[in-house]
Amino acid sequence: MDDTAKYLIHASISADGVVERSDVVGAVFGQTEGLLGDELDLRDLQQSSKVGRIDVQIDSENGHSFGQMTIASSLDKVETAILAASLETLTRVGPCQAAIEVTSIEDVREAKRRKVVERAKELLTESFDDTVMSSTEILEEVKESVRVEDISEYHGLPAGPRVTDSDAIIVVEGRADVLTLLRFGIKNAVAVEGTNVPDAVASLTQDRTVTAFLDGDRGGELILRELAQVGDVDYVAFAPDGQSVEDLDRSDVLRSLRNKIAFSALPDDGDLRAAVAAAGDTSGVHSDSRPEAPAPDDTSAASTADASATPTADASSETESDNSGTITVETTSEPPNATADEPIPEPEVLAGAPPEPADTADSVADEQAPESKSLADHVREVVTEESGRARFLDDELDLLEEVAVETVYDALEDTESVPLLVVVDGETSQKLVDIAAQRGVEHVVGRSIGEFVKKPVSVRVRTADQLLA
To answer: What is the pTM of this model?
Structure first.
């Protein structure tokens, strides 16, 4: 019946006494029987599915009953109007004097049309715009795919394409780390694939300038210790504490590699990650060498390093420009026996921004919320003050949860404690009422009430103005 209904008859009920839903339904059938003749008899119309079931929502307060009644109809306009008018002839419900007034006759098809139009607007705005890519986005996507496809193997281990012919290599933990460096144009990385360093990598480190760039955890430290035992490590860099190389963005990768330190400067025992972090904070960048010019067939910024360069005596700053951008290398005074650091194969260094303080406004508001409030207080704070929030209240009107009004649907579906009442600073829509009925919410209070194709009987819907009047 709900799929074929063309109209919804909405009527209000008031009775001078306490009555229940069954009393109202019985009064409707009993007092309209024979009133309109056989063709418009309500029982016959229901049996032929031309009229749907009578939905009644009734409440009692101070010895009086009041509520709403909804009847779905697939009759034409004239017959539906006659049927609606017949409801107003009821004068008693059960033992009590009562009155029924038809408040509106809703065209279900018109509401569906408006819903279709609104949804079409959303699809037109969102779906088509999201599929349009700018020239820059197309270029970057193609470049990134080429870089990722450049991943190769070195004796069965994931590696960048420049590992075999580069004077400097970067040893990382796994395949994902190699892919991360490739995305940022670094093509001379090779992975050890676990804490057991392969012989191929150990041999490779004997005649190359080696930087170990490892995860900021205990596993990365263990790999470094074994690599130092079976191979030759020149420099060490760690990801920030608790993070993996594969999780870093471009600026974090460059910052970590710029702050690498000579392996010979690390203590034999103790926390190696802490030692690298402390040395990086105090010593700056340990290199004044510059990257070699890229090969003619390699336009990326991943050039090999000149490991034999020596540091200058005084702190200085030099800037060199090439076809791929500006390379800035800072040098610092070092002890006479210090070995120069090879350059990181990247065209530029991006400074990292300090983390912004967390927004704790919501948590502070929750901590300062009063212990007990009336429903009117909640309605004023949420709706009257235009808070842009929604509150879930229990049967004692205590706050269970407060969320942004944009997330009220998901929050109501996912909340573990089912609220008795929801107060929302916005329109009470069909979707919100449907979710409330599914979760067992009994009352919804909003700024306004939207159009309903069908209102659940179990949920009472009111506006803030009705409560605060």
So the answer is: 0.35
